[in-house]
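To: structure desk
From: M.T.
Subject: fold request, one chain
Message: Could you run this one when you get a chance? Sequence is below, nothing fancy, just the single chain.
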Amino acid sequence: MVYLGIDVGGSSIKYALLRDNAFVFKKKVPTPPRDYQLFLATLREIVAECGPSSLRGVGVCVPGKVDDQTGLVEYGGALPYLHRKNLVEEIQRFADVPVFVDNDAKAAVRGEAFSGNLQGVEQGAVIVLGTGVGSGYILDGKLRRGLNHQSGEVSSAIQDRDNAGKESFVAGQCSAVGLIRDLADILGVEPNGALVFSLLDTNAEAVEHLRLYGRRVGLLIYNLQTVLDLQRYVIAGGISTQPQVIEAINEGHDAIRATDPPITETLQRPEIMAAKYRSDANLVGVVSCFLPERTPITINCK
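Reply: Done. Structure tokens follow.
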């Protein structure tokens, strides 16, 4: 059986073929920033490239509020043109197979709960660090969607008490794309993640900026933990492949807990770790709905 997974992000669209429970082919193309028709044409080209006659299902994740039962997107996060678009209906116009559409962060939760670092965890979360920030929660063993399909839209949460505008929101303070851009500016290089992190330790200002980022994400997790009381938070998105980021988030979270001794006695510290599937957790999640429960999925491509 062959399935196509498509992960739509604010800056790029990743897609991969799953054959015999292994990803054997993976690519990415730029996301059209403003044109919905061009976006649909891009999806049509992806399906055509992957051989529609051999596909048995297409799974797609996008930013924004998504009704996973119907495929209707409401407010597309970084892609406002997705608002009120039914992507299941649109994609089935050129792919005559079952189509599943979900929010990107909830897809990451599905992937990590299916066969990743949330497998068997009854109380856990995924934090997806990308252009914006998404999250999704496993509560009492079930994926929590919320009354209006907006559970986990933490990009809209406020990080500081001054509420000074957009820069006060989680989307601005915890954006992984923003972090790479800032570090690149400090280092005087192109905003390439691998390059930036290879040079990080050569610049004290860059190291301190990463620590600040870790404290910001650590604060987000701390605030979520006061409400949700979870066992484990899993960090996903491309930046989760960098061990320095996971270390900075753990250190930032611990620094917040250390500000008041009663906190350590009252609030149980959760585990904070990288997602097993790192930046591919979304892809695993959107194809997992077509597979038997707990099927192990491997990634045999870069």
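Reply (cont.): The longest strand covers residues 22-30. Let me know if you need anything else for the meeting.
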